[in-house]
Structure formats: C-alpha cells, structure tokens
Amino acid sequence: MKLNKIFLALVLGLGTLTSCNDKLDVENPNQQTSATFGFNADDLNESVIAAYNHLRMEGTNARVGYTIDVTRGDEVWNSSQVWYMPFDDYDNPATGDIDWWIWRDYYYAINVCNFGLSRCGNDDAQLSEAMKRIKGQLLFIRGLSYYTLAGYFQNPPLLTDYSQYSSLDGLYASNAPADSTGESQYDIVFDQVEKDLSEAMTLLPSRNEGGEWAKGRATCGAAAGYYARALMMRHKYSQALEVLKAIIGGQYGSYKLMANYGDNFREGSEFENNDESLFEIQFLDYGTQGSDDEWTPVNTSKNATQGHAVESNFAPGDDGGWADLSASPWLYNLFKSERTTDGHLDPRLYWTIGTYEADWDSNDQTLGNMEFTKKLTSSSKYCTNNNYGGLPIAKWTNMRTGLYNSVTTGLHCGINLRLMRYSDVLLRAAECENEVNGPTQQAIDWINQVRERAHLKDLKLSDFPTKDKLFEQIANVERPKEFGCEFGRGFDLIRWGFYLTQDRQNQLKDHETFPRIKKEQWSNAQFNEWLRKDVKHADIGSAIDSANVNLKSSFDTYVQGHEFEPIVQTLTNKNPKLVGNSANNSTSNAGYFQKNGWTVHPVVELGK
C-alpha cells in the first residue's frame, strides 16, 4: 500500500511538471518583442508615436538639443556665465558632458524609425495608404534627426539598417567614409537626409487633409520644407528654389503668414499648428500636464509633464527662470534701427526681447509691457541674470502672453516649438533666387511679404545692385529679425561659411559683444542704458566708465572647427570606430568650402 502511494505521488508529480512545461511554452500576448511586434499598421503606429515622443526629449527639443544651437548663433549670449559657456564661447572640449545628450536622444529616435522602416519594405507602390503614411512619417523623423546630428557633429555614423543592431559590429558603427570616392561623412549623411525627405514628400498627405495632419503630424509640406533646408546646407540653391516655389504655390498644402506675428509663440489650440506652421514639436499646455519631468528616453513616466524647459533657460531669475541665455545688444539695436510705416517699433521685437518700450503702452499690436502677469514700467530695472545682466529673451516664454505670473522651472512650458514656419520658406526662396539669378524683383517680393506682416516699408530692387548686398540684407537683417533667438542660426552661419573669412569673423565679434553688469550697482537709468548699448568689439579694449561694467565678445575665444560640436570622449572611448571631427581636431573647414567651389559672401555695409 505504501509503495502504491509513492508511485501515485510520482505520477501526479510528473504530470504536474509536464503541465508546467506546456504552460512555459505559451507565449504571453502582453509581452511584445521584435519577433512578434510590428507586422501590422496598428503596431507600427505605436512606433511612429514613439518616434515623435523622442523629439520631445531634453537632447532633442525639450532643452539642450534646442538651446545649444541658439547659443552657437550671434543673437544670444550666455548670461549665467556657467551653463552653456563652452558652446557660447566656441571652445567646447571633447570632455564635455552635455552635448552628447543630443547624440543620444536623436539616435533613440533613429533606432525607432529604423525598426519601423524595416517592417515597411522597399516597394512603396505595394503599400496601403495607411502604411504609406507610416513610412513617410518615419522617413521624415529619421531625415530630421540626421539633419540635426550632421549640423551639430559634422560626421555622425549613419545607421539605416535595423538588422545591423544584431551584432556589436553594427551597433558600434564607424563614422569614417566607407566608399572609395573620398566623399566626406558629412556628405554621406546629407545624401541620406535628402533621400529620406524626398521619399517622405511622396508618401505623406498635406495639412489640407485635416484631422491629425493639420494638428502636428509630419506632412508632405514639412518634408518638402526640410528637404529644401538640407539642399541649402550644401549650396544646392537651384534645386532648393524649385522645392520652395512649389511650397509657395500650394503643391504641398496651403500655408500663409499669420496676421499677428505673436500668434506663432503662444500656447493653445487657437495659436498652435496654425496656418504658418510647417512643423512643430507638440507640448501639452501648462495645467494639462503630468507631474514628472521626463528628461531622458530611459526616464519614462506615465505621469510625464510633456512640456519643455526652453522657457526655464530663457526666463529671468526674478521670474523663476534659470537666467541662462540673453539676447545680444546687436539684435536689440537691429530691431530699433527701423520703424514701421506708421511710426511704431517692429512688433517682432516685442515677442523676441523682454524690454520696456514706451511705444508698447499705447500700441494695440501688443498686449502691453508684459512681464508675465506684471507690468513693466519706464523705471523697471529688468534683466535676465542679476549678476551679469542681459536682455531677457521673450520668445518661447510666457513673458508676453499674460497667462502665468512666473515660470515653473523644468519641463513645464506648453508652448509648441515651431521648428519651421512659412516665413522661413519665403526668406529661403528669396535667398535661393538671389544666389541663382539675383538680385531680382522676385527675391525682393518674397522678402517684402515678410516685412509687410511687420508693417515695415517695402524694399526696392534699386537699393540692391549686387547679389552680395541683397544677401547681406537677408542674412543680417531679415532673418535675425524674423527668427531671432530661435533654433537654426548656428546652422545658417555654418552653411554661409561665416567662420572661415576674416571679415565675417570680425562681424561675428561685433555681433557677439555684450556688457556684463550687476544691476544693483547702478541706477535704473544707467543700468538700462548699458544693457541696450550698441557696443562694438573695438570698445572692449577702451576705457570703461566703471569697473562694474565689463565688455566681452563670445567670439574672442573661437577655436577653429568649433562651429561644430566635438564628438565627446565618452563616446569615442566606448566605440573605437569613431573618429573626431573638426572640433575634436581644431581644424578649419575652409578646405571643404574650397573643394566644393563655394564662396563666402564678403561683408557689405548696408544703407550706403
């Protein structure tokens, strides 16, 4: 009897083990893997959403990925004199630990895109309409990502095949040119950017489709706009001009300038994804967000705020901001140099730089002299940083909206960052027309469309007898006033070659000269006068009224090749296949310009 009981127990035990083994072989439908996920449009739409989400990370557009390029430009200086200093001073070492966040977060986006594209196939004609739209969005985001990486790092590795990731050889990719033609890695990457964006143009609907396509998803118009930008980075002006003319002609959707310039810099459905926007990053309005700051791709939370911290970087310390970045006196005085046809200040100044101006107390084109919910007055002693001064940047903040009384620092600002607006299409079309045929009346007409929105008098062709003079007007008047303190100026200076000739370097020194001044050591009138003073680089060596004012030019510390950011040592230590760029090696990029037959426009004095 005892043996029988033991035998029965063994049988039952074996049966239990067999049953457990059968259960272990059952696949968990809630556990998604690359082997089971992504074989239908519903799955791949999740990949598309994930790719968009990576465009909202700190390294892409929520903070440093956006603002580092702003500091590379000549319209902004680092008023905290700590954070962003190496980028503002053009001497960032390879041992830095901030700019690689850009690298990290854009490659996260690229990885998601490469996975989704691996499921889409190569024959677009065989795709359903839903799959065409999925593939088009993934191509656009990958193209945008590589456009940005090349503009920052010059020679990033090109990863387009998801199957490469199956081995370390693929994951640790090389950024050295792989072909025998001697084409630079910069060119290889931009070849792919052009390929991705031109294909996306054929797959995506226009914003006229309505629904999600009018509310922030990438469209054929967004792809066309970035395709033109990519072409212009390598001086392919004739090709870019044809694309830009097609956008203006409505081939890729209907766009127009908003009547009020400020509507491009406010949160809310009334203003965001408007008729002027080709593409913008979607952030939740303040008050509708979660509670957790989601800084990195691995720091994910279902309660993420889904806002950005650009406002925190720009806003003054007295309003709760981090007081890191200020507008240059050059940009301020550029705005002040020209009045509207009815005698007012350029309304774009109001939305770009946070100063008190008497004109805005009575000008119905503005909301008044706003400082968040407070009022600026003629006696206001208002600056970005209390220790170093600085003209506050109003753009991408709520300084002029009257909605909130201060900044909630972190990823909380809900204003969508408009990465490309129709005014950019018009001014780029004018630039390309000038390069190909200029100067022409057509180029002048496109510029005047943008000026008319700002109520400025029309330019006349007769005032621009040479291509060089019209280029100067576009590069150093029209574009700074329209896009001041926005992402993209650093890219422009690179493609124009402004770092490569002595006259352009001298101009950058003037543009980037600013006073460092503590506000408590001056009367209101003296302090405000110094903040706005149109100082020149030559003034740095002259006697200053007081030891409490110190003039500096960010460009004085420029090191050759540092118009790009170095590939950081953290990455090269981990990946022996990575080679440095011009910033790592502190070498000039003049040879690249000369090899391609490109020229740098000489400085031309306007108004003469």
UniProtKB/TrEMBL annotation:
It comes from the Bacteria. Gene3D superfamilies: 1.25.40.390. GO terms for cellular component: cell outer membrane. Residues 276-581 form the RagB/SusD domain. Residues 24-229 form the SusD-like N-terminal domain. It is found in: Cell outer membrane. Pfam families: SusD-like_3, SusD_RagB. Keywords: Cell outer membrane, Membrane, Signal. SUPFAM superfamilies: TPR-like. Belongs to the SusD family. This is RagB/SusD family nutrient uptake outer membrane protein.
